[in-house]
Amino acid sequence: MEINQITEKIIGCAIEVHKHLGPGLLESAYEECLMYELNHAGMSVVKQKPVPVVYKEIKLDYGYRIDLLVEDTVIIELKTVDAFHPVHHAQILTYMKFAHKSIGLLINFNVTMLKNGIKRYRI
User: Fold this and answer.
1) What angle (nearest 5°) sits at the alpha carbon of residue 68, between those of residues 18 and 66?
2) How, if at all, do strands 74-79 and 103-108 pair?
3) How far is 52 from 121, CA to CA, in rounded Å?
4) What is the rounded distance in angstroms from the CA atom of residue 68 to the CA atom of residue 6?
5) Model pLDDT for residues 55-101, shown as the tens digit of each residue
6) Backbone angles phi, psi at 121, to 5 degrees
């Protein structure tokens, strides 16, 4: 499947979850429901995938985790915040760098219209 098809499918699943749940829940609820929708759509999903930090010759396992990794290609970082802050953008870009993935989606479910809470990254 082409990368744009994957991200379209992910966004469609996220919209479905948001349509049913709306804003105001904990991130973990959206994570479980989005994982359900993605699996139901036939996509492979890994939840809470560990991401080690590599510094020169050492590997630091400090509990950094990708919320969802879809099709071993797209990193999804979920939020339930009033607005994205620079640290959220930095977080997903860092995860993409250390996981060696070029596509990421930052999704904030705490919005009235989900399209206003999605940011796509490509490095």
Assistant:
1) 125
2) parallel
3) 20
4) 13
5) 899 888 777 899 999 999 999 999 999 999 999 999 999 999 999 99
6) -120, 145
Domain ranges of the chain: 3-122
CB atoms within 10 A of CB 9: 19
Rounded Cα distance between 58 and 52, Å, is 10
C-alpha 19: how far from chain center: 18
Sheet holding 45-50, edge to edge: 45-50, 65-70, 74-79, 103-108, 118-122
Structure token digits, residue 26: 């904990």
Three-state secondary structure call for residue 81? coil
